[in-house]
Structure formats: C-alpha cells, structure tokens
Amino acid sequence: MANDDLEARDNDKDKDKLPLTPEGMAAEWATMSDIAADDGGEQEANIDRLMNQEEIDTMLGFSIGDDGKGGRNGIQAIVDSGSVTYERLPMLEIIFERLVRLLSTSLRNLFSDNVEVTLEGIRSVRFGDYINSISLPAMLAVFKAEEWDNFGLVTIESALTYSVLDTMLGGKRGQAAARVDGRPFTSIEMSLLRRVIGVVLGDAEAAFRPLSPVNFRVDRIESNPRFVSISRPANAAIRVELRFDMEGRGGSLHLLLPYATIEPIRELLLESFMGEKLGRDPIWENHLATEVWQADVAVKCVLHECTMPLKRVMKLEIGDTLMFDARPDSVASLRCGDFIVSEGRIGRVDDKIAVQVVSPLRRSKTTMAAFDTSHLNPAC
After folding, report:
1. In whole angstroms, what is the distance from residue 146 CA to residue 219 CA?
2. How many structural domains does the chain have?
3. How far apart are the first and last CA of the chain?
4. pLDDT tens by residue, 81-100
5. Is residue 274 assigned to a domain?
C-alpha cells in the first residue's frame, strides 16, 4: 500500500509538471473560483496567486514546440493575425528585381567601378521594431512619394556608408574601408551620400513607372532613428534589403515602405505580372465598342468667347449689347465637350441657321491597335 501511495504521488507530481493547455488552465481557474465561492470571504483573499511561467507562456501563445510547426494561440495569435506579408503583393518582387538591375548599371557609372547589387530579401516588419533594430552609425533618408502622398525611408548601414565614401574618394580596391565611429558625418560626406540616395530613388521611380508613375523626393536626411517617425510603431511596413558588393567592400541598404504608402496602388500590386489581362472577353469588348459608336454626344458651335468682370455681369439688363470680336464670316469652332473637333462658318439654309464644316476632323493620333499593343507589351 505504501508503494502504491508513493507511485500515485509521483504521478500527480508528473502531471503538475506538464504544460497546461488553454482549456486546462481555464478549467483550473474555474475550479479555484468555485472553491473560493464555497469557502467564503475568508479564503477569497487567498486565491490571488502568481501564475507560473508555463501558464504565462500558454496564455501568450508561446507554449508551442520550438519547431514552430504548431499553430499560434492566445495573445500571440491575435498579434500575428494583424501582420502583413509581402507574398500577398506578388508584384513587389518583380518591381524590386527590376530595381536591382537598374541599380547595378547606375552605380557602376557613378563609382566607375564594378558594383554588384543583389536582392537579399523582402519581408514585412513593424515600423517600431525596424527602427529599434538599426545599428548606429547609419544614414537615414526620408523621402516622399508625391503621387501617393506618403513617406518612405532609405537606410544605409555603416559598413556600406564607409565603403561608398571610400570608393568615391579614391580608396584602394580590395581593401576594407576604415570605420571612424564617434563623430558625425561631414558636409562633404553628406553630399556624396545624398548623390547615392538620389540614384537609388531615381531607379526606384523607373522600377515603379510601368506599374504606376511616381516621383520620390528626398525630404530630409537624418543620422538618428528617433527623428524618422514616418509611421506609427505598430504599423506594418515592407522592408527591402539590397546588398552592395564592391570588390571586397560593401554593405546593405534598406528601402522601407510603410503599408499605408503603397495602399494607393495595392490593387495593382495584387497582379501576378505587369499588364495582366486575365478574364478578357472579346464578345463583351465588341458589344461595348458598338454601343460607344452609337452613343449620342452634344456638339456646340462657338463663334466667340469673351470675359468680363462679375460686376458688369451683375448689371446686365434687357436691351444691353455685347460686342464680339468677330465678323459674320469668321470661323466658328465645333466642340464636343472641351475638345475642338473641327471648324466651320455660320450661314443659313432656308429659314434655319447652319454651320458649314471647313476643316477636317481632328482625330486621335492613337489607334485602337496601338493602344492594345502598348498595354499588352508594356515598356520595360
């Protein structure tokens, strides 16, 4: 009997060592509440116990094995559900691979040296986490996307900063750049780095142009991450890491785009390739073209236009005469909306006023065939 009691106690201890599941933890707390209700107010003050580490991990969702194969739960699942991954925007990878090709050519011309640019990765981060992970010294450039009316960030890490300065100031090839910590960048160094940032943003504009034309303008350059608050710390952002290799020298450059910045072109970024035409219906297109040709449009004949002060307009009365700078044989313009389609002279046919067309119609220079070709084969 004694041995059985010892084995039962050992089994109970082993059960206590096992991590609690969320359901088991909830049941335990419910049992404790029932006990407190039965014992009265004297024991109610004693139920405030501290949670152990296993219970805390279970509640936060970190009790899953280290292999990460299990699903998240608890608070961690709520946090992860709000994260944004770049895989949902497949066009981003195409754009930044194009940026790599453009930068390789542009930087070779700028440095007059062999420069290899590689795309290390594209990932989703939270803005606050990224700012806290920046190692100093670093060069941070805040730029504004004019058409999207929002901001982005270019970060040049210290290794790349000194490598770029060493290359542009005539350093020896194959030799690591000297790193000088503890001092701010000089005006000459800032000017050189601004040129590099301008090249990067210029090529980024060219990479986005086939999808959505945009102008990136440098707003300010900082060396302290605290002064580049372009988004809230909890907001998601896309971080693009580019690796620069200049014959033994180099480093990483990060291009950070908050999700709010690329929101205006989100629908375009969801496409699988540029100029996507999935679901095109020729029958519907022919029907639409037929209806367009049969649509009624208003055509106006304008002999003359004049401007006058509002004060004079408000004083117009019956019998007043407005003098036009035109003669009876002057040419009038035929307008469809704001577009002048032709010109003509005003005359009379029987008892009705008429217009005789005296110039050919001004047709669009872009044909339907050229329009389709430009959309099916966008310029790279």
Report:
1. 11
2. 3
3. 85
4. 444 454 467 788 888 888 99
5. no
